[in-house]
Design a protein that fits this description.
With 161 residues, this protein is an alpha+beta fold. The chain is built from five helices and seven strands; from the N terminus they run E-H-H-E-E-E-H-E-H-E-E-H. It comes from Allokutzneria multivorans.
Amino acid sequence: MTVRLGTLLRKDVPRCAELEQEIFAGEDPWSPAMFVSEIEAGAFYIGAFEEDDHLVGYAGLAVVGSPPNAEAEVHTIAVDPKRQGEGIGKALLRQLLDRADAVNAVTFLEVRTDNESAKGLYTAHDFEVVGLRKRYYQPSGADAHTMRRPSLTEREGKKTS
């Protein structure tokens, strides 16, 4: 993987929206305004940039509450289809999870039930399926699994028991 991870800025939003249209064309891709709103609200958004600062992936996490009751939600992880399979998505996810662990947050996300590669990535990072959301993705009507990753304290407790 030859990318650097860094803070997603407003100037990156047009490229995010472009990737959204390509990756999530069959669903309801985020608009530039949605990205700006998340960034301005203080959510944790990072980008994966090539050496020339070309954005090839992005990810976002929102954290609510504070320890011991903090919760985090992965809002999005996306990688340019031409760069998928290079470990960029894994690197982005790890950055989000480091942020969640820093506040000892339980972390949630939704993933298409038929997205086996994403579910495998999440399972490898301690997520478990805890629910099913019928027709979650629109307009396709695809179902989503809700997945949960225990807080750092919960995961460490399992290791010692």
